[in-house]
Amino acid sequence: MTRLLAAVTASVIALAAAPAVADTLVDNIEGIRIDEDGKIDRFTGIWIDDDGRIRQILDRGDKRPAGAEYRVDGKGQFVIPGMIDSHLHVMGLGLSALTLDLSETASLEEAQAKIAQYAADNPGRPWILGRGWNQEKWGLGRFPTAAELDAVVSDRPVWLERVDGHAGWANSRAMQQAKITAETLSPAGGRIERLAGSRQPSGIFVDAASSLIQAVVPEPTPTDRDIALLKAQQILLGMGITAAADMGTTIEDWQAYRRAGDNGSLQMRIISYAAGTEAMELIGGPGPSPWLYDDRLRLNGVKLYLDGALGSRGAWLKRDYADDPGNTGLPLQTATRLRNLMSRASLDNFQIAVHAIGDAANAEILQAVGELSESYTGDRRWRIEHAQVVDPADIAKFGEHGIIASMQPVHQTSDRLMAEQRLDEARLKGAYAWQSIRQTGSRLAFGSDAPVESANPFHGLAAAFSRTGPDGQPFGGWRPEEHVPREEALAAFSANGAYAAFAEGRFGRLVPGERADFLIVDRDIMLAPPGDLRDTQVRQTWVGGQLAFSNESR
Amino acid sequence: MTRLLAAVTASVIALAAAPAVADTLVDNIEGIRIDEDGKIDRFTGIWIDDDGRIRQILDRGDKRPAGAEYRVDGKGQFVIPGMIDSHLHVMGLGLSALTLDLSETASLEEAQAKIAQYAADNPGRPWILGRGWNQEKWGLGRFPTAAELDAVVSDRPVWLERVDGHAGWANSRAMQQAKITAETLSPAGGRIERLAGSRQPSGIFVDAASSLIQAVVPEPTPTDRDIALLKAQQILLGMGITAAADMGTTIEDWQAYRRAGDNGSLQMRIISYAAGTEAMELIGGPGPSPWLYDDRLRLNGVKLYLDGALGSRGAWLKRDYADDPGNTGLPLQTATRLRNLMSRASLDNFQIAVHAIGDAANAEILQAVGELSESYTGDRRWRIEHAQVVDPADIAKFGEHGIIASMQPVHQTSDRLMAEQRLDEARLKGAYAWQSIRQTGSRLAFGSDAPVESANPFHGLAAAFSRTGPDGQPFGGWRPEEHVPREEALAAFSANGAYAAFAEGRFGRLVPGERADFLIVDRDIMLAPPGDLRDTQVRQTWVGGQLAFSNESR
């Protein structure tokens, strides 16, 4: 067993030792919730039944039940609903967290030491994988070399992505496995770096050349996935996320989720959207799965892609990129194929979640939903994922057919400078337009897109109502008219997320009959200024009336 | 909904209406069981706890519990353990049972009428599939034609296998979909029949030519599999089989089993052996699955193939076939690959079940088990599936390393005339050598290989102790020294099947603590002569203390 596995397992054993579900009273708390009417309500106690569902929300004056088997003194701490992340990648987050992180290294020597240590700690890993290096930060004045990696790991292939993901650093073993020699030509859109005065590859592969190495990196094993799922749960529960929509579940991912459910180590709730219609049919069969493991797992539907991202100019725009005349990006599906895939899934009552970033992509999916809604009536909850750049002329259509806008507030603060380059003023009006979309009647479901961004929901909440980044910039907020009031942002990270996943009535609100998913946090999230809110610490995370994370236990 | 689906569903609803598990006393029965010491024991009552496990086996004089919630009067009927079939194909059985069976038709006209009726009953089926026709039996003096099929079904493709599986009959739609024209050439090893005096395909495809049509027959949908599983359960529970080893589970099969488990319609127990190591890893991940759904489903390991069958001379023999000089059959795996696959599975503690029919195949797997046992110690329960023809010099090796001989008694009675042609006297000594193998200390686990043979375990029991077929031939039994006494045959169809599946202590015996899986049958199976035993009728089948089948309810 690697140290990593041992550490993750030890942590899970600690969690498993949490009290089993019992008729429980969590009392003496400063509770904040969205009540049955969608309003913010303050309360002081939660009475949980022995199925882990909320029996009663208690106000200061309410009589406490005499018979609760188990009592928790909240010591006046703040309690809020468990956060629901409506768009992330569970397995991607876990696998990425298990690789070596070099982003904090300040020199090549420090990086080499860290790589050597990681290799020693993980003798069973056939490849050493990592990310985050930056030769500029190291003051190296050049790329590092394969020889500098060989000096610390020569028994196994090593492959480390640069901080921006646009280059990779391989050792000689990795290049051997990929059959890279002096004769190997750089592929279109990429470059194999060479040693000075030679054809010999230096170990650095830029852009499309990365795929030459990537192609021989082994797929994660089932055990890798099991460990990654434990790791992802540890991260997410520690940040206060009790439920997450997994965008792009493969059959291998699903089997890992089921293994965790079967052996009792699935603590958080995962709502799956299959990676395409084939995975959907293989996972769900003739329709969405039932809710499994006390509402901890369900296959709801399918994730489809209509375009790429703004940063790489893969987003599909109606007009040229402002900083790249002649380029509008591209749709990843033809109109016919998109509708065929949506039809196939809808016919069997799978929910549809379509990635659309550019204004052309958003216009196209809005149009397609309009057309399909004629055939596929009823409560479909069509989801548009990201809805990042929408032509202001199209925004009103979000209010039709019960469309859900699944958006990630942190993308706005991370991407705004890049977006200002890619788009002109007129199009920026429809970018990250949370409030305009909300006002059409569309329901907002917020998420993080982790591991692309941090999964921390308090970063998302702060961005949502302030439109400012961690540095407080820009002063007053970027296009502040699109901000979402604090209580609406909280709903978008909880009750709306449940609704977007057909889970209302099961979890997402602190109301009687729903699962008792809640957090004990160290501050009043309704009053903390944005900078403070970002630093919110989760002290305990409860899922279904059971303690699933406690920062005191670490 | 097709009538077929409606019929199957109605039957399942009827079963679901059976009483839920309660503390139950089944009394006034003539019970027959294998007791804790492996001896036949007679008893008169079963007391079942509310988990569906046996609390007590009661003899005539024993005091009856006063508090049982639910009492069943057995009215003096015979009760025996639920039968365990250690080798069959659950999904193959169900899918095959859902196709059109023409084996009872006596004329082309009768077959046409039956085909038309089936098409009308199944408007939603995109293809009409069937089997069992025989133009000789019809007195037709020629093959039937596509036109004769078109006359009854022209809106959809039709594809019907001949009774021997060596030819298929297609209608014009099926040929169109397969792009068969007058120009299509017959493939090697096959023949496209042509209309007299023409190149026009007649609709009959012989041997390898069948694959031209087979290639365009659609894969079963998830709904097809769900219906097939219900159908297979109906058949098996109706025959008294309460648990079965599924030999060659695909991920699609597994997902159907899980769907049934999740929605409560998995009534019988299925022990899965994955169709190869890739399916094994996808289904089980890092190791065998846990026992799921109250011991109703588990992935135990992997099914591997080492050779083919005797009938088609695919079985791998040490010397030439007696009726085909120069041909020894072929191994389907090299020695190295076999050991690699076995190693890969054993490393992760999956159980190995290897198909071996010919004496060379059996020698090879016995040798491989011997080698692997040095590395993979502990309780492995290596399974050899079929073990049909074993060199008498090799039989002793079955007693080593805890090898389990998973054999199908009915193959002996069905195949004996064919075996006598394929093999010479010396080799026949080691054919279907149940008793010789048992005497080495190897445990016998009996099954049917359904749908290749009928799953009826009473046919298997009768064959096992009589070595005679349904016609009572040959008088005195074929090589009767290899017969298995009745009580040992019963154990091979129950307790040994559980042991072969690592399920002892869970089910397989009527002893306290095990699941209450038992049958009410219409005769004393320990006394009935072979012909009578074959006709045993199952009146009720109970699985885990719940009534899962009753022939009175139909």
From TrEMBL, chains A, B:
InterPro entries reported in the protein's UniProt record: Amidohydro_3, Metal-dep_hydrolase_composite, Metal_Hydrolase, YtcJ-like
Domain Amidohydrolase, residue spans: 72-547
Keywords: Signal
Pfam family, any one: Amidohydro_3
Signal peptide, first to last residue: 1-22
Protein's recorded name: Amidohydrolase
Organism listed in the record: Parerythrobacter lacustris
